[in-house]
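Data card: per-record layout.
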Amino acid sequence: MRTVGIDDLEPGMILARDLLQSGRLLLPKGSVITNSNITFFQRQGIGKITVYSSPKSEPDEETLKKSFGYVRDYFMFVNHDHPAMIKMFDIAVYRTAIKLMEGWTLPTYEEQTVSELDDMRDLFFRDEGKVEDVVDAEIKIASFPDIFFKVKKVVDNPKASAQEIAAVVGLDVGISTQLLKLVNSPLYGFPSEVNSLVRAVTLVGSRELCTLALGLSTISYFKDIPPELIDMRTFWMHSLTCGVFSKIIAEKVKGVIPEVMFTAGLLHDVGKLIIFKKMPCSSIQAMLSARENFIPLVEAEDMTLGFNHTQVAKDMLRKWNFPTELTEIISNHHYPHTEEYKLQATILQVADNLANAIGISDGGMYVLPGIEDGAWELLGIDAESLTGIVEDYDLQIEELFQAFFC
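The structure for this 406-residue chain is written out next.
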């Protein structure tokens, strides 16, 4: 998907989004653009159009073979007969082949060693401490944003009006600005601009908007992760991708709130950030082990640390008094054993795998963790629908990332 100026628009291009003007539909998504369309757009003063990106040609056999060999390693840990995994593999191979045709070079990773972190020390060695010690050490030295607790208070009040909710959220200019960007993004696709928090609450829903605000306030907390440990842009890109996939999938499953799933996807890996801060050397060892042994990072964490990021997230979110639903979904997304929120945890598990699959063509580092036996069937969707889900994601992600992190 790409945005082209009206002067660069050519007949035969395919419209990637509904083309709206003042809330009026001019041309629906999927339409093949003609010369008449271009003339009409010019008369209407339309400056840019979003169209599907299409390669000049389909990948040749040699490129597909090269892509297949590269992508295969990322799927070593999963059930190769699983219908969703088969489809994810096909998607990853094709996307990687397209990138190769565009001149992308398969990455090679320089090994990072613990010696590079001479000025950092782990809180404790394996078997000397527990998950609770890691979380407590973080909580003692840093306060959580005050806006979080104010938003949560209004979330817990079923009688709060749209004006009251907007007033509380509006106390933090950064979060309220991000919320309006989010509501005006392709994630929602409202026909006209939403220019006030009160209107946003009305359109999206009070609890839904507050859930999004909780997610944004949590992101603002993690600003001091050492760059030697992780590229935060890459981390949040994966997290946002997982959030978008979670929301798109949730919209296809009855009984699930898409905004809750988006926020859960956005925050699904926050436990990693606490581990990076408190156990930097062990974090590097876990990452190296995951890459060298072709195992999911969560498995490498268990072997290296004696616990993993989902356990840290669970303890941390509980101590921050996060909503129970979000806490349970996030802390069970690798192993959706939770009874009450099993469906939601499964959606997040599928979204996480899909985010990892499409991340392969951007130089992803870790193998897919896989989907728990019997979990996929709970969703009631066909594996072929993953193609459309990825297409919807492609239409949204660039503008969303700009709204969140630029």
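Known properties of this structure: The two ends are 20 Å apart (CA to CA). The chain has three domains: 2-51, 60-140+227-406, 143-221.

See the next section for split statistics.
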